[in-house]
Specification:
By secondary structure, the protein is an alpha+beta fold. It contains 8 helices and 17 strands. The protein is elongated.
Length: 399
């Protein structure tokens, strides 16, 4: 039943996070810029009218196509600041971020596919993407060859792969031309920020005062520094090591997460996860306690009533409910200390009367204190939890 309460409270916490994200902005993934150039190829082809007579005619064919050009280089420098929003008793970490990017397009020109074909360029667009547009804190500052471009929502009728677009002067697209660009972007979000490496050479550096980052995705940082004062991380991802460009051109598969990398702003102490892990040892607590009482009852000739077993078991079970409720308002270690101290004191006082003296009551209280101490060590030492738990069980069995 207490496990069900933990699941329910965790669900409420997740719902609070979604509510804050709905009002602020959700997780963000940055994509682009990418150059999209529609063009028309016109050529003349010969059509056989009557094969028997050998008559032919010429007809003009026009076909509309799209050329997608990824940046040759893209260097992004990001800074992220966090703050805590509250939804009831549940804290939610949100962030504001600043991204300054620079890079270069190299226009190769478009070669005709058909013999004698003529290429006519349409309106080139520079496409940008953020996963939640509500997080935009202003219009992105995009400049190509020093010329400011107006970034707006992508035209709906074009079914463009990214939600933001800026028209580019087609006269700049001369074969072999290099187009240097800069991009400034202020973006808000919740929980996680990620990047999609669409350039041929992607370099990203991110710094923040948040001291507990979790690095996710297909690529880990090449360098990182994490301390109490925050973290700094940098990535370098060449196009040869990622399928991001191919996924972009193919439209992607909704069932497959696009390749990229991200940073999650996780709380290092998830009270619901720790409480859930603690309850997994609840049965062990009860069995060890009842086994100890049974052995002592046989050896010391103590007479322990079944109702006293029930009262002691109820106190052991309620420890986990106390731990959960206190940890929603206090730091987990303080919640654990208060809950265990209350239960040890209650059990020692009760057992003093059940067992007929302070010596027996304090002895059993010391046993409970040792059990709670071992459980806390298991909880805070996540990497060694399995080893510590298995050694404890083996020791109990041996004893």
């Amino acid at each position: 039943m207490i496990g069900g309460v933990i699941t329910e409270r965790s669900h409420y916490r997740n719902q609070a996070t979604r509510d804050v994200a709905r009002a602020h902005a959700g997780e963000q993934v940055l994509s682009g810029p990418v150059l999209r150039v529609p063009y028309t190829e016109t050529w003349v082809r010969t059509v056989v009218v009557d094969a028997a007579r050998g008559t032919e005619r010429q007809e003009t064919v026009k076909e509309e196509r799209v050329f997608t050009l990824f940046p040759a280089t893209l260097d992004t420098r990001s800074r992220l600041t966090t703050e805590t929003r509250w939804r009831g008793i549940f804290p939610v970490t949100v962030y504001n971020s600043r991204h300054d990017s620079s890079g270069r397009f190299v226009w190769p020109g478009i070669a005709p596919r058909e013999k004698g074909g003529q290429i006519t360029l349409g309106q080139p667009l520079v496409l940008l993407g953020v996963s939640d547009l509500r997080g935009l804190m202003g219009r992105p500052d995009l400049r190509v060859q020093g010329q400011a471009l107006t970034v707006a929502a992508a035209p709906a009728q074009g079914r463009l792969p990214l939600p933001l677009a800026a028209p580019l002067d087609a006269a700049l697209l001369q074969p072999g031309a290099t187009l240097d660009f800069t991009l400034g972007l202020d973006l808000a979000g919740t929980g996680r920020i990620g990047y999609r490496p669409l350039a041929d050479d992607n370099r990203v550096s991110l710094e923040s005062a948040w001291p507990h980052p979790s690095f996710d995705g297909s690529f880990l940082p090449r360098t990182r520094e994490v301390g109490e004062g925050g973290f700094k991380a940098s990535w370098s991802v060449p196009s040869l090591s990622t399928q991001a460009q191919q996924q972009f051109l193919s439209g992607g598969d909704e069932r497959v997460e696009p390749e990229g990398f991200s940073v999650s702003l996780q709380n290092p102490v998830d009270v619901y996860r720790l409480s859930e892990r603690a309850t997994k040892y609840g049965l062990m607590f009860i069995v060890l306690t009842f086994a100890s009482f049974f052995v002592l009852e046989m050896v010391k000739r103590w007479r322990i009533h079944p109702m006293q077993y029930l009262m002691i078991g109820a106190a052991l079970v309620l420890f986990f409910l106390l731990l959960l409720s206190l940890s929603e308002h206090l730091d987990f270690h303080w919640a654990y200390a208060l809950a265990s101290l209350a239960c040890v004191a209650l059990l020692a006082h009760y057992l003093r009367h059940a067992l007929g003296g302070w010596r027996a009551g304090l002895g059993m209280g010391g046993l409970f204190a040792a059990l709670y101490g071992v459980l806390y060590g298991i909880l805070v030492s996540e990497d060694n939890a399995l080893m510590m738990g298995s050694l404890l069980l083996f020791g109990v069995l041996a004893a």
